[in-house]
């Protein structure tokens, strides 16, 4: 009899908790890490509506409605992608663990970027349409002066991890 009473009380408490949770949290909608289930490390928007995020397991997602919905893009890598950058709605780069990818079609296809070295890339930025930099492990800095078609070693002689690069204005 005691087991039956305990069981009934336990079921009642679980039902009450479930009912309370649905009232309390019913207005919330889980948005991250949809649609991939990955952790994201960087996000870049070219305007108020269109942006990309990059992250774990080669994940790149794209939004055209300010982040309300996201669509997964295929990168064909499982490496962690620490950074993503777009200079317009078609031309962008993502990079991470020994991986440097580019797209010329808004992220529909990602291809390996020709690169003189392979390190753990951490950040990429362009100061204007033609001049860009990417930084990473071993103090590596690459730059481009032709809009990202070719990348040149600017520095690679340090044991420092370069995490971020930023420019206040154009060159």
Helix content class? 10-25%
Q: What string gives the helices and strands in order?
A: HEEEEEEEEEEEE
Task: State the helix count.
Answer: 1
Spatial gap, N to C terminus: 82 Å
**What is the tally of beta strands?**
12
Q: Provide the gyration radius in Å.
A: 22 Å
List strands and helices in order, with pairings.
Layout: H1 2-25, E1 40-45, E2 51-55, E3 60-63, E4 71-73, E5 81-86, E6 92-96, E7 99-103, E8 111-112, E9 121-126, E10 132-136, E11 141-144, E12 152-155
Antiparallel strand pairs: 1-2, 2-3, 3-4, 5-6, 6-7, 7-8, 9-10, 10-11, 11-12
Explain this structure to me?
With 171 residues, the protein is an alpha+beta fold. The protein is 14% helix and 32% strand. The chain has 1 helix and 12 strands. The chain has one helix spanning 2-25; strands at residues 40-45, 51-55, 60-63, 71-73, 81-86, 92-96, 99-103, 111-112, 121-126, 132-136, 141-144, 152-155. The longest helix is centred in the N-terminal third of the chain and has 24 residues, at 2-25. The chain is globular. The protein starts with a helix and ends in a 16-residue tail after the last strand. 27% of the residues are buried. Residues 10-23 have low confidence and may be disordered.
Features:
12 strands, four-stranded antiparallel sheet, single chain
